[in-house]
Design goal:
mainly alpha; Growth Hormone, Chain: A; 2 domains; 16 helices; 0% strand
Length: 417
């Protein structure tokens, strides 16, 4: 059987971004297990340990719109490289931290660099890929992150056993390599350079493109689904599953690890098909599939009492993550203007907000009502996205030939051209 090259036919920029995504995710996977251990070495409370992790996510969230505005003025190549190197320098210095306060500050600075990288990388991906390629491009981009994220923790565990501080330096080294690759490989890319045409006009300046985008129901639907993805798949699943397996299923941590492996493996299998469905049949069917799978997966977890049912729920969450990792981003690319840094930033902020609030809400629900209610809350959030996806307008024009005509009325005033 002949295996297709998932990058075949995609712009050169997409291949470059996949490599960068892999390097960034690999490095983060190496350092992530060591961060709480390193923070505890300063003799702080568990709350303070959590604050080190939250500082990165919080600063990434609050600086995203500013990063989007900078992308609109300087272009993706410069902002992407600068963002990666900011994370690299802050991580290397964090490895040298002598106090808890230094570690906290440096992780926060790293969050700013991460926002710059994420917004510029996704913006470049969506601008480089054509309408019939955006779903697949987003899929392979997520695949780079997924592959690096799976490989990193295993290496991080081995390195951390030797030296916790060493993981920060290796992470920094991976990011420096990624930055060098970005600045050189994207040198000939006209898409990634400083925007042509001089000073942006009033409609392209600051938050103006975002205000227009928020009038577009399809864009709002993509944001809500991305928020639900962050809440259910990233925040709630990551924080609850390890505890659920031990405390509710009464099994060892090994089962939780198998569950995450199943979810990641299924997601990897479905990433490219999900992207192709989005490009060939439209964003709407892919969004319906993704939100539907996550809703059902969360409900199965809420009712699971055996390892087999638990693994089935995790597998469905993997399917949903594959579709929700490509189709919502493709919608943003369909409706975003040429200079849409703040539009991409707002979209990314939705996922970050869900990932930040998910563990907090899940923890509160578990303590008050138990695991089934907490997982059901994740299903409810995903179901909101499912209902919005059913009623949204198709943004992929080629979907007309598949019997999904794009209405010329209703939200047309809010479309970005």
């Amino acid at each position: 059987m002949r295996i297709r090259n998932p990058l075949a036919g995609l712009p050169r920029e997409v291949s470059i971004l996949v490599v960068i995504a892999f390097l960034v995710a690999l490095g983060f996977g190496i350092v992530a297990p060591a961060i709480p251990l390193f923070a505890r070495q300063f003799g702080v409370s568990y709350f303070a340990v959590g604050a080190v992790i939250s500082a990165f996510a919080f600063m990434r969230f609050v600086s995203a719109l500013g990063a989007g505005a900078i992308v609109d003025r300087l272009g993706e190549r410069i902002v992407l490289t600068a963002g990666v190197w900011i994370v690299a320098v802050s991580s290397a210095l964090a490895g040298l931290a002598q106090t808890y306060e230094q570690l906290l500050l440096l992780r926060g600075i790293g969050g700013v660099g991460s926002a710059m990288f994420t917004v510029s990388a996704l913006g470049l991906l969506l601008r480089s890929a054509g309408e019939d390629q955006r779903g697949r491009a987003a899929g392979v981009f997520q695949g780079g992150f997924l592959l690096g994220g799976i490989s990193g923790p295993a290496l991080g565990g081995l390195i951390g056993a030797y030296s916790v501080r060493a993981t920060f330096f290796i992470y920094a080294g991976m990011l420096i390599i990624a930055g060098i690759f970005a600045i050189t490989a994207l040198r000939t890319s006209t898409t990634a350079q400083r925007p042509a045409g001089g000073t942006p006009n009033k409609s392209e300046r600051g938050l103006a493109p975002l205000f227009v985008a928020l009038r577009n129901r399809s864009f709002v639907t993509a944001m809500v689904i991305n928020l639900g993805n962050g809440f259910a798949s990233f925040g709630l699943r990551a924080s609850l599953v390890p505890l659920f397996v031990v405390e509710a299923l009464l099994k060892g941590p090994l089962l939780a690890g198998i569950g995450f492996f199943v979810a990641a493996g299924v997601q990897a299998i479905f990433l490219i098909p999900a992207g192709r469905l989005s490009d060939e049949r439209g964003r709407k069917p892919a969004l319906v599939c993704g939100t539907g799978a996550v809703t059902i997966g969360m409900l199965i977890l809420a009712s699971s009492t055996t390892p087999a049912v638990f693994l089935l729920g995790m597998a469905l969450l993997g399917v949903g993550s594959a579709f929700m990792g490509s189709a919502p981003a493709a919608v943003v690319g369909d409706v975003s203007p040429a200079r849409g840094g703040t539009v991409v930033a707002a979209f990314q902020m939705a996922s970050d907000f869900g990932a930040i609030t998910g563990p907090l809400i899940a923890g509160w629900l578990v303590s008050r009502a138990g695991y089934p209610i907490a997982f059901s809350a994740g299903a409810a959030v995903a179901a909101v996205g499912f209902l919005l996806a059913i009623s949204m307008k198709e943004t992929h024009k080629s979907a007309r030939k598949h019997g999904a005509p794009i209405p010329a009325t209703d939200d047309s005033a809010g479309e970005i051209t």
